[in-house]
Design brief:
The chain is α/β, with parallel strands linked by helices. It contains 7 helices and 9 strands. The protein is elongated.
Length: about 240
Amino acid sequence: MLLFGNEADKEVKTALDAFTKVCEEQVGTMVCVHVGADEHNIMEFFGVKKEDTPTMFAVTVPDNNGQMKKYKGPAKEEINAKGKLAGWVTDFMAGKVEMYRKSEPVPEQAVDRHGVTTLVGKTLDEAINDPTKDVLVEFYAPWCGHCKQIAPIYDKLGSEFASVDSVVIGKMDATANDAPADLQIQGFPTIMFWPAEAGAKPMSFEGDRTLKGFRSFIKKEAKSKFEMPKKKKPAAAEL
């Protein structure tokens, strides 16, 4: 269990007192950690902003796939309420708390001018679980050099498939949004493909990161039937 916030903040100090009391009751079952609001890397990983503290999370021990599940604690206004934190911990231990997925706000215009769909934590599941769509998703980081290199290629790919309704060319900032726990996003970019069928298992794209490589992969693995738009011939020069 982690509590975020600087102790100099009165709200955080009060929350820390309640947090400590609950932790004393969970000795042997939980490890409790107080994280200062200046621990930027940890704050970013959990999507916590300084102005949102005190904030609490519980995390599970990583499973066999190295995946750690996150659970967000009570709202900051409720942490200090009598019995609220202890009740939340009881519910968490009983498996009654839903797993938390970090997500950016849903964009008003998800599809950009290149035909690439911006996905966030709140919209990813719906997109990849649509049995009528073949979905290619690039999980990227804004600071990733390799991601920046393939960005123009990915934009061209989006433009080519913009008129193909059954194929989605998507991307998601995996530093600002959480992918499903069963996806192993261990490097950037990670590119995954979901065929258009119910219960489809994701496929890892390991081909050439070229326009031809992406196009050939989609044509080979797609379950939907589609035709690529014919390229327009250049107009004849006027005499």
